[in-house]
Design goal:
The protein is built from 10 helices and 5 strands, in the order H-H-H-H-E-H-H-E-E-E-E-H-H-H-H. It is α+β, with helices and mostly antiparallel strands. The chain folds into 3 domains: 66 residues, Arc Repressor Mutant, subunit A (Orthogonal Bundle), CATH 1.10.10; 81 residues, Glutaredoxin; 47 residues, no CATH class. Strands 2-3-1-4-5 form a 5-stranded mixed β-sheet, covered by helices on one side. A hairpin with a 2-residue loop joins strand 4 and strand 5.
Length: 267
């Protein structure tokens, strides 16, 4: 399938399992992959165990785990979308935004650093004109500096679309990039169904919060030393019957366990 540039929001799915859209890229992809999806699901006693294999399958065809792919996986498994999203966001090998045709991941851990990885990373950044977690303007290269790739005996090392490359030198990098640009490199380029932006990291959610997170200083922070947000949210669950009735928190149902309130009126 050729590359397409849909108008759908990068974070919101527009796929519907009950509405067929002739000529729509993802609708056609879903029909094509559905038999393989069902086969994967059938391999597991618990269908939810197929979540990660399904995500790999869609990413192999789209180049990233699109919002439509996550919605389709949730539908196939009969799971809430939040379950699929929370799983995918945990793993760094799933890309939640479009990336380049070649994903260049250079190891920045101890053995590689001791064998020249700093120079290799600087060389990549200089010759690509991009930094960590960025993609070149032509959409060909995405660059990432990663933790240990477990090839310490061949340091410095990297992966190109998950294929290992060892004993890196500037000359190797020059030859590698030239071959990729010429289309002659020995590693197959990734599929790319949507043009990537320069930065492909998904930033923390900063939109509307659930009722328990409204009116606190930082709803993205569950609390901790110097931050009362988590304490305030817990107090609301404990003291507000509307929240307490839906909570399994012991403090909501066993008042004798609650500590005395402090000066600020919080536990």
């Amino acid at each position: 399938m050729s590359a397409v540039h849909d108008s759908d929001n990068e974070r919101v799915a527009d796929w519907d399992p009950y509405i067929a859209r002739p000529g729509n890229f993802f609708d056609e992809l879903f029909v094509k992959l559905k038999p393989e999806c069902e086969e994967l699901i059938g391999l597991y006693e618990d269908s939810r165990s197929a979540l990660i294999p399904l995500a790999h399958l869609f990413q192999e065809h789209e180049g990233y785990t699109s919002p439509n792919a996550l919605a389709a996986i949730a539908h196939l498994l009969g799971q809430p979308l939040s379950v699929v999203e929370s799983t995918i966001s945990f793993y760094t090998l799933f890309y939640r935004k479009p990336v380049g045709r070649y994903m260049l991941q250079v190891c920045r851990n101890l053995s590689c650093l001791m064998n020249g990885a700093e120079e290799i990373m600087a060389y990549f950044r200089e010759h690509l004109g991009i930094g960590h977690l960025e993609t070149t303007a032509d959409g060909l290269f995405s660059y990432e500096e990663v933790e240990c790739l477990a090839s310490c005996d061949r340091a410095p090392c990297m992966q190109v679309n998950l294929r290992f490359k060892y004993d890196l030198t500037p000359k190797m990098i020059d030859d590698m990039l030239a071959a990729m640009r010429a289309g002659t490199y020995d590693v197959k380029p990734r599929p790319q169904t949507k043009a990537p932006e320069r930065r492909w990291k998904v930033e923390a959610e900063t939109g509307r919060k659930s009722a328990g997170g409204v009116g606190v200083s930082n709803p993205n922070n569950a609390g901790g030393v110097g931050d009362r947000s988590g304490v305030i949210m817990l107090d609301r669950i404990v003291s507000d019957t509307a929240f307490a009735a839906r909570s399994n928190e012991r403090l909501a149902h066993e008042p004798q366990l609650r500590p005395s309130t402090g000066d600020g009126g919080h536990h």
